[in-house]
């Protein structure tokens, strides 16, 4: 059985005035199969409960995508690998401030992660 586990990092309490999830994603984020981790302080999950929550749900494989390829995504990838998780990075679901930074991040994904996929490859793996 495939359990859909999505991890979101909230910056503030989503019930605060003016803060909310993107309406089209809200039903998925607030679903029973979604984990909402506490916010990270810098660029990696070392200062939040992501690793703890993944272990609580007995997950050992993580698929990553997100903003700032060579900072946030790479930091999460490295920390999760150090904590024993298999990681796959969806490189075309990340962003960087320049093509040079993006290519450097992709090089690091390929060197360290368990897999480096395009979005289409990731979908085919699920």
Q: Summarize this, please?
A:
It holds the Pfam family Isochorismatase. The chain is α/β, with parallel strands linked by helices and 126 residues long. It contains five helices and five strands, in the order βαβαβαβαβα.
Q: Can you give a write-up of this model?
A:
Helices cover 37% and strands 21% of the residues. With 126 residues, the chain is α/β, with parallel strands linked by helices. It has a single domain, classed as Rossmann fold, CATH 3.40.50. The strands form 2 sheets. Strands 3-4-5 form a 3-stranded parallel sheet. A two-stranded parallel sheet has the order 1-2. Helix 4 links the parallel strand 4 and strand 5. The N terminus is likely disordered.
Terminal CA distance reads: 11 Å
What is the count of DSSP helices, taking H or I runs of 4+ residues? 5
Q: Could you tell me the strand content as a percent range?
A: 15-25%
> What is the residue-averaged pLDDT?
82
What is the CATH top level name? Alpha Beta
Domain Isochorismatase-like: 15-110
Family: Belongs to the isochorismatase family.
InterPro entries: Isochorismatase-like_dom (IPR000868), Isochorismatase-like_hydrls (IPR050272), Isochorismatase-like_sf (IPR036380)
Pfam families: Isochorismatase (PF00857)
